[in-house]
Description:
The structure holds 2 protein chains of 2 kinds. Chain A is built from 26 helices and 8 strands. Chain A is mainly α. Chain A folds into 4 domains: 3-227, Fumarate Reductase Cytochrome B subunit (Up-down Bundle); 250-372, Orthogonal Bundle (Fumarate Reductase Iron-sulfur Protein, Chain B, domain 2), CATH 1.10.1060; 379-524, 3-Layer(aba) Sandwich (Rossmann fold); 528-678, 3-Layer(aba) Sandwich (Rossmann fold), CATH 3.40.50. The longest helix of chain B is centred in the first third of the chain and has 16 residues, at 37-52. Chain A binds chain B through residues 250-251, 254-256, 368-371, 373, 375, 378-379, 381-383, 386-387, 392-397, 471, and chain B through 12-16, 30, 32, 34, 184, 186-194. Residues 284-287, 294, 296, 339-345, 355-356 of chain A line the site of one iron/sulfur cluster. Residues 275-281, 297, 300, 348-349, 351, 353 of chain A line the site of one iron/sulfur cluster.
Amino acid sequence: MTAPTQGILVIVLxxxxxxxxxxxxxxxxxxxxxxxxxxxxxxxxxxxTRLRDELVxxxxxxxxxxxxxxxxxxxxxxxxxxxxxxxxxxxxxLLNGIFGLHVPGTETGLFAWTxxxxxxxxxASIALAAVRRMFFRPPTMHVAPGGYVILVLIGVLMLxxxxxxxxxxxxxxxxxxxxxxxxAGLFAPAVRGPYAHLVFAGAWWVHVLTVLAxxxxxxxxxxxxxxxxxPNVLFRSQRPRGALRAMADLEEQETFGAATMRDFSWKxxxxxxxxxxxxxxxxxxxxxxxxxxxxxxxIVLDVRDLLLREGDLLMRDVHASGTPPAHQTETxxxxxxxxxxxxxxxxxxxxxxxxxxKIVDMRRFLAMMExxxxxxxxxxxxxxxxxxxxxxxxxxxxxxxxxGLEIPTLAEKPDAEYLYFVGCAASYDRxxxxxxxxxxxxxRSAGLSFAILGREETCNGDPARRIGNEYLWxxxxxxxxxxxDRYSVRKVITSCPHCFNTIANEFPQxxxxxxxxxxxxxxxxxxxxxxxRMAREGPVDRGNVAGHPERTTSSxxxxxxREVVAYHDPCYLGRHNKIYDAPRAVMDAVPGVERVExxxxxxxxxxxxxxxxxxxxxxxxxxxxxxHRRIDQLRAAQADATKVASGCPFCLIMLEEGxxxxxxxxxxxPVDVLELVASRLExxxxxxx
Amino acid sequence: xxxxxxxxxVPDSTVRVKVxxxxxxxxxxxxxxxxxxxxxxxxxxxxxxxxxxxxxTVGVITVGPPRARxxxxxxxxxxxxxxxxxxxxxxxxxxxxxxxxxxAKVVDEVxxxxxxxxxxxxxxxxxxxxxxxxxxxxxxxxxxxxxFVASDGGTEIWKEVEGGHEVWKASGPAVLxxxxxxxxxxxxxxxxxxxxxxxxxxxxxxxxLGADLGGPSVEIRAMEPPPARKAGRVMKxxxxxxxxxxxxxLLRDEARVL
Lengths: 689, 258
Ligand code: SF4
Ligand code: SF4
């Protein structure tokens, strides 16, 4: 090659690089500007955890290997890791082409081998991906033509890379200080000959131009996630998963919640750029699965599409008049109200997108700006406001369940070690009053010093907050914090996961910091310490669980020597607070209980009962009822189970309703794990009072 | 159109009221107070009219103790434009007629086109003040109203009757006493609540209105709580046929509902 041709080629290359990265870069710059139209949210807390997440979730691809996505996940991880290595090679090629420089280490045999092996893995993975998209596409997966374009581009990249490497070896252009890598070495003889030089140059150009086409095209597609996942993981929420974002200074604000693109934070917009449209969130959504109009992926894409649609307009408009257009997302209220805030979507998303926050932000707009919560939900809110409980039962009746049980209130026993925060369900719902009594009996038998607030307790506001009425939540939470502080409460027990979540994860937002423990975690440690002893012959057989003279249907029936009990993971115990093992350990410690799982919907993949997110207070008329689906799953997985145990009053209500509606009362009884323990408590009749 | 809604603050329906020692009143401590439910429907009706006719103003008024200010604040949060509290000594024991006469004085001043009241208050269920107000003012009155619209030279008023409704027409100002309607009273938006918090609520002194607060009145002689409900009975053991027969017998002889 003559020097002038060489010079021209370098200029052509430089121009192509400028064009490819220019087109891509311009788009990225625009997307960045759009994103900054969102409000400023601080995501700089806990830098060390952020770094760790980056290593584990981004570099380690940890969220991809979940069942049932193991094979696909591995294929994706291989493409990803392959890309990291190959990108280094590409940078080297471009630097070498334009400036004649090399990235250190890229000329070693190790690097050539790594590239070669990863190229093989990537080719295999994209073949797998293409076959899956063409022939085995799951119904929730949405494949745009752009998806194929990207697969073809990656394929061309890998093939040209291999051809170019082989030709390099064949033409002896590459230093041969090492054994040729397998694939390139395999093909090298095929291109050996007079044209090897030409093939080398051709493949080199095809490769480099494909890289540039890729750079230009990428930011226009969902494959931008290749880039945005990095910041999206880095800036993911470091709040406890169960805690919603606090809205500060409500008195000072003029608008509440989210409807237009300005009402979402920049991070929420980054979520949209990062969505890979993989549909994993939708696969796990109990609302979608039961025919509701909600699809978590659509929620994410609605927000993104709104931003893309209006971004340009808004940016221009902002300069022109300073008044942003106020278009709202395509998301309809009925989609938002269908959400149980179960976080199955958040758990499933490989790129840490935060669906629930968006849904609740949009609910906040509906509930607080428009007063447009569904009427039944509104009634529950009014009840909380006026009576301190969503049922609208009298405030004065809050501690009636404890009548005659001699359970002290903090006013009577201010030095009690623990406050048992009973919660509305166990205070007012008859079925759940039995659970409160069971817990009281257990705590007594363990000799724990505890008291309740009695009438000074009021709803902690969880349903209000999740329905979107942050204002009411703050009032309720504040009232409880004041009551706690009146008695200098330090340790709190709850038997309700929603109470647990709110007091442990959300009260700190208002300055209420306590040591909060869910009853099942506490009972687990009391059992391990030997403070709770159970026997096959529980006192219940002698008729005295906490004022319940009769043997109840929630007691264990050990006539057959054992009873098969399935465990149902409450979302706010499991996914939101990662309490999976304690309830299981407690069940395993109860003599005669044979614990079984509702496979595959257990632990992280537990299926909601349908009551969370304020759904307990709303009607459910579209599709199958979520709790009925749950009973179907139970029966399909564990037809032998004669009880299904949970650790949440709302799950209990929902499971009871489901079992009743399906006429299965004789086959399977819903219970709380605490009831199983109470029914086997060893000791004198008065141990359980 | 200028609308005026008269409301009363009563114990919320979730409150378990206790009778005071003298058996003449309830114990006010620990009571959650609220706007009487029918009055809330009256407010909703007025606000719906305002939604449809932006020129409308909705005022709200109550005759009551200072705590009744909260009820007015709630009405403002729902969207009423202004509120007036009429208060003074002995206001809590004021009879229905005196209340109506006091209200009439304010109506004279405000000169609304229509006055809306709930058809009765949920505390004493007397259903008296609205009618008495119309009588005092010498205005026509339509009871059990579920809807009204302005029409040529007056107002068309829907009055609920057994199995349907009648449409009445008022050619000038009138008093409507409002029935529960299809649409639940609205829940205030948060901006509404915030705005209401900052609004001024002027106070009028009951005694200086110049209303005749004497006249015939009723007096509570004694109150007593309803008898406690007897515990229910569960019948479950035995064969279904015999249980059904037993149940029928109990329903007839003991509960006397058959
Ligand atoms: S939180 Fe649960 S119900 Fe709501 S969108 Fe996600 S998966 Fe669906
Ligand atoms: S939100 Fe997450 S899980 Fe859902 S489609 Fe997008 S990337 Fe996949």
